[in-house]
Amino acid sequence: MISFLHTSPVHIATFDTLLDELAPDMARQHRVEEGWLAQAQKGMTPALSVAIVDAMLDLASKGVGVCTCSTIGGVAESANTDAAPAIRIDRTLMEAALAHGPRPLIAMCLESTRAPTLDLLGNVATRTGLDMKPEVTMCTGAWSHFEAGDRQAYAQYIANTIKAEMVNPDCIVLAQGSMAVAEPLLKDLGLPVLSSPRLGVIRALELMDGR
To answer: Do 17 and 75 fall into the same domain?
Structure first.
């Protein structure tokens, strides 16, 4: 079973759709903790860290646990063991990004996502021996559209911001899973555009195959 930890119920349909396409017979479950993102935005506390790790340990014990939130992903991933894999969907994203070169444009919408995302990028770069030089684009004004449930306005704000601020990246990275909705609006740039949901599900399926 692949078990997902989300910080918004909006992600359930995204990951169910991906699994229905890639592995329709795969058992899955979803756990949603809407309050955890708001708490993490104020600062990761020991109590919140313990709650996240406990949740991931429980989810991973059933097969593979997958955290879909970039802000809490680092803590969630710390629950990983060989016997019970716990992954964050954006690790595979950063690996794919650096495969395109050392200058990815990393776009994100929440300030609380910046540190865990760039820490992850640095970790992947160190493992691959790459001297990275990322561009960082903050699409903070987009988040109000996400909270209002306006996916079209959310996607358009992200795309407009990236197009206005990009310099000369090797690829464009939509760091938060929810940002995948902007991917079609960036295809005209002639650059690889990467998002985490599909890559994360593929990685989870690989881990399931190896169990």
So the answer is: yes
